[in-house]
Design goal:
heterodimer, A: 663 residues, alpha+beta, Immunoglobulin-like, 4-stranded antiparallel beta sheet, 14 strands, 13% strand, B: 261 residues, 6-stranded mixed beta sheet, 7 helices, 10 strands, 36% helix
């Protein structure tokens, strides 16, 4: 292994601090929000009717999908300052962290036993006293477990939040995630990326052991324990299970079992009276109409039309095949995760020796931020198998790694919770080996498998958005390095070449160069041969400013060739004269712009992309910034997620629920 | 020769921090056609003892002999019914009765016929395709009884079989179990029941074995010599005297433990 010294390595402590600070601040915000809104939603019926379905809906949209829209809104609001990027990073983290806490709190408050509530009421506890003496103690364990999960979720999304490529521009905030992203995407340094990944994992494990494990022990000790059990097994909403999802497994997994009914709306509606249903329906209609009104009246129809006619809307015809491909990937990963998790889960729950080896691996494995694993895995696999095949494999592996924890967690806890009488019946009547597994174990854990499936698909959608599309490598427009790392005498005239590499269908390009005007003077700009080889061009050298030290915008457009130019070559040559001794940097505007013959943006860095809904969404959001189309695609994903839940999972659950209610 | 011999059984459970001794040197025989009931305070190890007899748990020392043969693992000739019925909720009443027969290797047609026969015997004709979910507690326990009897065991172990039922249902089922026991056409003729209900024990059993609080030891035995059927003696002083005998032994055991500690 050879290490290339990276200048940023010295900033590592600072980056670590920034990331820790960012996640901690977001955790604080999430707790404040989760506790206040959680208590509100669980004690106030009206608030719950509005809040819970709304949050359910938000949950079903993959976070990474709507991120570009949030980013661009904030960037335009704060005029591109770093604060905007920091805020959008925090917002992304918040949307990934807050749900766990919110649903944990809701579950805990709803799980307070009726006799406790009644005795509190009979002693006249009301208002703030009631909150302080009854509600707060009851939510402490759920809060700790929710915060643990939120913390892990924060690390999971950190790399996506800290480093964003949007419409050809890279936005990043200092932190471990952005450093890892740069190490992988910009420097392509696999050793550095791997080291950073290990460092991040170690940090997560270290902090987990230092804080959360201890807090968890304290919170679950003694008085709160029964309440905790109630809150975890009592209310069975998707959110609650998610709140006690994979990463809080060690402490809570044993209680995660057989949720009564998974999602929310229909189950809740079943319990409501007609009047309440009518109110809920009216509210929903008002909400839908106001959204339609706002969209129709505020966003002009032209804007929608424009959104649906500009790039990459032309690819909409491929949507069915994109959906099929993405669902295929998710399906393959799901089947692999299910079978491996089932095997491992049965082994771990039934054989103590296997468990003794497996659990420590599990413990470390679940602390690896999977999104951060992506670049490292991709570099390794793409070197071995080539870009596209490497990405396909990376994508499936990522999905499996992400989905499997949810499946495994649910399966193990379900097996451990098989009632002792059922176990004894199995033993008494001589079920052994495979017969025991097919007749006793698997039927017993079917509801848990469904729960695990819902969670895995949910998290899978997030991961696939991240993993079908891979901007990779250095910028494709660059200064010829052999020409800039040179020493010249005063009065000497030298050229600097701006080159392009591995470009496809280049039709138009534009860039701007900067230099130090006390040392250098620009004297001429001429076009290179790359584009002129394809046909006649219209070249504009831009303005030479020898006071501030800039030249450009230099641009060139093909006026004859409709196909554009492929390959690598020289775009332009800039001539400088040395006027004073000293060091001068020459740099290019960030980022250079390239268009193809249909005026589509060509990514400034190399992109590997698998055809699918995830990469389409990425292109729409991150490359072209087509918000209208992005909203449409997010709607499609939400529709797929919700209909799968309604048509497949909820039906299965209702069926199993009936036959498992006894146990 | 007795059907069952429980010989010097001792059992200790290991927890993270301590050892809990649940059974100490328990010995007694059970004869053919006998109905023995174990009573004792909660946690005295009587259910554990039943599980050791069934082969579900292993004794630390001591042994169980069935017709003089060492009994260490579950045996179809000794079956059990459970307090919470132990039905597989994802199988119908019929399937629940059939499954143990399938494990024994009985053909589909035969075992279906056998299972239907036993369900009919316990009065569940017409409920063959009902899932446990839709059955009442009493009906579930009937499925449990049919499942146990379908194996044609000699010994039937019962772990507080009536304690999770309402009193009226329990009464009916007690009578039904006694009828099955007395029926010469049914091979199941030796019963061992665990109960904490002294009246129930005296009403049903030939012999009531009384156990001490943890660690469980046998501290007394009451022979119930009331003629059967005993329904007509339920207001008789002989019945109450036997109950008093059992309660007196229980009280003594409790005082002894208190004095020791």
């Amino acid at each position: 292994m050879t290490f290339v010294k990276n200048p940023e390595i010295l900033s590592l402590p600072y980056y670590t601090f920034r990331t820790l600070l960012r996640i901690t601040v977001t955790l604080g915000i999430s707790i404040a929000w989760g506790v206040s809104f959680g208590i509100l939603a669980s004690t106030n019926k009206t608030a719950s009717m509005v809040l819970v379905p709304f949050i359910d809906l938000l949950q079903s949209v993959p976070i990474l999908g709507y991120f570009p829209a949030v980013l661009i809104l904030l960037v335009s609001l704060f005029q591109g300052s770093e604060l905007a990027i920091e805020l959008s990073a925090i917002l992304l983290l918040f949307t990934s962290m807050a749900w766990a806490i919110f649903f944990g709190v809701v579950g805990a408050v709803k799980g307070i036993p009726v006799n406790v509530i009644e005795s509190a009421q009979s002693f006249g506890l009301k208002g703030s006293k009631y909150v302080r003496h009854v509600i707060l103690p009851a939510i402490v364990p759920a809060l700790v477990s929710g915060a643990t999960l939120a913390w892990c979720d924060g690390w999971f999304f950190m790399i996506a939040a800290e480093y964003i490529e949007y419409a050809g521009t890279t936005y990043w905030v200092p932190g471990l995630g952005s450093f890892l992203a740069k190490a992988a995407y910009v420097y392509g340094d696999i050793n550095l990326s791997a080291v950073l990944l290990v460092l991040i994992t170690a940090t997560v494990v270290y902090i987990n052991f230092l804080t959360w494990h201890r807090l968890m022990e304290r919170a679950t000790a003694g008085t709160y324990k029964p309440v905790l059990k109630l809150d975890l097994s009592g209310v069975g909403q998707l959110g609650v299970i998610k709140a006690i999802g994979p990463r809080g497994w060690l402490h809570l997994g044993n209680h995660v079992h057989w949720p009564k009914s998974l999602t929310a709306a229909s189950h809740r509606l079943r319990k409501y009276t007609r009047l309440e249903k009518a109110i809920a329906l009216t509210l929903a209609l008002v909400l839908v109409f106001s959204i339609v009104y706002i969209v129709a009246a505020q966003v002009s129809l032209d804007l929608i039309k424009q959104g649906l006619s500009s790039y990459p809307a032309d690819e909409l015809v491929n949507l069915p095949s994109y959906i099929a491909l993405t669902m295929g990937r998710l399906g393959v990963a799901y089947v692999i995760s299910l079978s491996v998790a089932l095997g491992m889960g049965i082994m771990a729950a039934e054989h103590k020796k296997f468990a003794a080896v497996f659990y420590p691996i599990y413990d470390i494995g679940q602390a690896v931020p999977i999104l951060a694993l992506f670049p490292v895995l991709f570099i390794a696999l793409s070197r071995a198998f080539g870009g596209i095949l490497g990405l396909e494999m990376t994508s499936i592996i990522m999905l499996v790694l992400d989905m499997i924890w949810y499946m495994f967690l649910n399966i193990v806890s379900a097996i451990k919770n098989i009632p002792s009488e059922i176990r004894e019946v199995g033993k008494l009547f001589g079920f052994k080996g495979l017969k025991r597994i097919t007749h006793v174990v698997i039927p017993c854990i079917l509801p848990a498998i469904v729960t695990g499936s819902i969670l895995s698909w949910g998290t899978g959608w997030n991961t696939i958005i991240f993993s079908e599309y891979m901007p990779y490598g250095a910028n494709t427009i660059y200064l010829d390095p052999t020409m800039i790392n040179q020493t010249y005498a005063v009065g000497h005239v030298f050229p600097v070449s701006i080159n392009v590499s591995d470009v496809a269908g280049l039709h138009t390009w534009q860039t701007q160069a900067y230099f130090n005007s006390t040392h250098l003077q620009c004297i001429n700009v001429s076009e290179g041969r790359f584009l002129t080889d394809a046909g006649k061009t219209q070249f504009d050298p831009g303005m030479i400013n020898n006071t501030s030290g800039s030249v450009g915008p230099i641009n060139s457009t093909l006026i004859e060739n409709g196909q554009g130019m492929n390959g690598s070559g020289q775009l332009t040559m800039i001539y400088f004269r040395v006027i004073n001794l000293g060091n001068s940097e020459i740099s290019l505007s960030e980022p250079p712009k390239m268009l193809d013959s249909s005026l589509r943006i060509i990514p400034a860095s190399k992109v590997y992309s698998l055809p699918g809904l995830g990469s389409y969404l990425d292109k729409t959001g991150y490359l072209y910034g087509n918000t209208i189309l992005l909203i449409l695609l997010l709607g499609i994903i939400a529709a797929i997620v919700l209909s799968m839940e309604a048509l497949v999972w909820r039906r299965l659950l209702r069926k199993f629920e009936k036959y498992h209610a006894e146990v | 020769m007795p059907v069952l011999e429980i010989e010097d059984v001792t059992k200790t459970f290991q927890t993270e921090k301590s050892q809990i001794s649940v059974l100490e040197h328990v010995s007694f025989p059970v004869d053919k056609n006998e109905f023995v009931c174990l009573v004792g305070p909660s946690g005295c190890g009587k259910s554990t003892l039943l599980r050791i007899i069934a082969g579900l748990e292993k004794a630390d020392s001591g042994q169980i002999l069935f017709h003089g043969q060492l009994q260490t693992s579950p045996n179809p000739k000794i079956t059990m019914i459970f307090q919470l019925f132990g039905l597989l909720p994802w199988k119908t009443a019929l399937d629940n009765v059939e499954v143990p027969l399938e494990v024994l290797g009985m053909k589909k047609d035969t075992r279906e016929e056998v299972a239907k026969g036993y369900l009919r015997m316990v009065g569940l004709e017409g409920f063959e395709n009902t899932y446990p979910h839709d059955l009442s507690g009493g009906m579930k326990q009937r499925v449990g009884i049919a499942r146990a009897l379908a194996l044609q065991p000699e010994v039937l172990l019962m772990d507080e079989p009536f304690s999770s039922l309402d009193e009226l249902t329990a009464k009916t089922l007690r009578t039904q179990v006694l009828e099955i026991w007395r029926d010469p056409s049914i091979p199941t003729n030796t019963l061992v029941m665990v109960s904490h209900n002294v009246e129930e024990a005296v009403y049903m059993a030939d012999r009531v074995i009384v156990m001490s609080p943890r660690p469980g030891r046998i501290i007394g035995e009451v022979k119930v010599d009331l003629p059967r059927p005993r329904v007509k003696y339920l207001r008789d002083s002989k019945y109450f005297n036997r109950i008093d005998d059992v309660v007196a032994i229980l009280e003594k055991g409790k005082q002894q433990i208190e004095a020791e500690s």
